[in-house]
Each structure stands twice: as C-alpha cells, then as structure tokens.
Design a protein that fits this description.
The protein has 2 helices and 4 strands, in the order βαββαβ. It has one domain: Alpha-Beta Plaits (2-Layer Sandwich). The model has no long low-confidence stretch (mean pLDDT about 95). Helix content is about 15%, strand content about 30%. It is globular, with a radius of gyration of 11 Å. With about 70 residues, the chain is α+β, with helices and mostly antiparallel strands.
Length: about 70
C-alpha cells in the first residue's frame, strides 16, 4: 500500500491529480485551505497503487507518494 501525503496548504485546487489518477483514488475535499482553495483527499486507499501520477502532475508539489 502506498503512502500518499497531501500538503493541503500548497494546493491551489487545479484538480489535475483527481482528473488524471488512473485508479480514481482521489477526490476534491468539501473543505478549503487557508488560501480558499479545495484540496484533494485520498478517497480509496485500497485502489491506490502508488504510481505517483498525482505527484508528477501537481504543479505546486503538494503531493508526495511513498511506496
């Protein structure tokens, strides 16, 4: 199982990570960070393979994936 770390405060809500996750493991939160943007949350840990697509696509380096 992969360990996905999302730094909510770095996120600007671009949604790239959610749109391009090949296993649909991420969704956008209902909450907002301090800058007023929604941020991604890992909705299904069991489906996450740790491929790192979310981290690679994040323009703000707000996501880290460790296997």
């Amino acid at each position: 199982m992969a360990n996905v770390i999302i730094n909510e405060e770095l996120c600007k809500g671009c949604v790239f990570c959610v749109q391009f996750c090949p296993f649909e493991c991420l969704s956008m939160s209902d909450g907002l960070n301090a800058k007023g943007f929604p941020y991604p949350v890992l909705k299904d840990e069991q489906k996450c393979t740790g491929c790192g697509a979310c981290a690679c696509l994040c323009p703000d380096f707000a996501i880290e994936v460790y296997n």
